[in-house]
Fold this protein.
Amino acid sequence: MGALTRFDASAYPSRIAAQVDDFDAAHFIEPKHLRRTDRFAQFAIAAARLALEDAEFAVERATDDVGVYLGSALGGLAFAEEQHDAFRAGGLRGVRPILAVSVFGGAATCNVALAFGLHGPNVANGNSCAAGTVAIGDAFRAIARGDVRAALAGGVEAPLSPLVFGAFATIGAMSTRNAEPLHASRPFDRERDGFVMAEGAGVVFLERLDDARARGARAYGEVVGFGLTGDAHHMTAPRPDCAQATRAMRAALREASLIPGEVELIDAHGSATTLNDSTEARALREVFGEGTQTPITATKGQHGHALGATGAWEAAVALLALHDGRVPGIANLEHPDPGCDLAFVRATESLRPRVVLSNTSGFGGINAALVFKALEG
């Protein structure tokens, strides 16, 4: 996280971001395909390729049985903004022909399918900051139903453009701690003042457990539960009684056939906004009990908030905690908010959780939760 340099943000109240400066799409995408994609789709293809490589999965052997499920809050909106500027300056001749097929939410999933020749279900969702979590949950359910044997699932976001970034600055959602970008995102801290916008993608490769074991794949953990609810309360403010946030977590636990006491780590949404953190803390106390000592982490203070992509990043953190036994602490939690009194992981710890719940929420009152379990044997 640092000063936003993608454009001149000197007139904005928030001038910091977690931007990816060393991304070279040519390392991941063939030249012909590269010319036909924008940054949004390129992030998705790159993350999907890394996921496939990590899984050592040969897609050409099962192209009909692999789906693509990706979420994004904004899709190709930043590229549309760039092309609108080109149109204003030079008319239609200044607009890139790929604009029409780059701005819709499904552009990322379609381009991933094209890049790897995947013929399974191709599903995009625009469920705001919960989009990546929802995509993983949808893929989990699709595999459980037998729609596919495997899926690429996660989220992608490329939001760092003047109008898109400015829209979030206008509603006061982002931190204005511009002189201290590394300390700006402060989940559950009493001095929190908003999130730091990020860009990027996160994709995981999901497959049937029997298939993974049969091919000797390295597996980080198992998805065992998914919950999804809607507040139907307000477009930006969470429901004060947190009734639907708690229902999403309980639904995920119910599908996993687990009780709250069996969860050994909670990966909280922790957006570092005033309302969200206090409401989420209340929801966690409702589900896990007053005075719960279940360890809780939240990682946006380390990687920023990439809107629809962040839930996928946090799912990866949860899976790595199961696999590696290391849990990252909450960055910048220097003065815990008394209203968010929970058992926070303050520094990286060597823990061996067997069950992790990852909680996510998004604008529009979307609540999503995933439960992951360590593999036995």
The chain is about 30% helix and 15% strand.
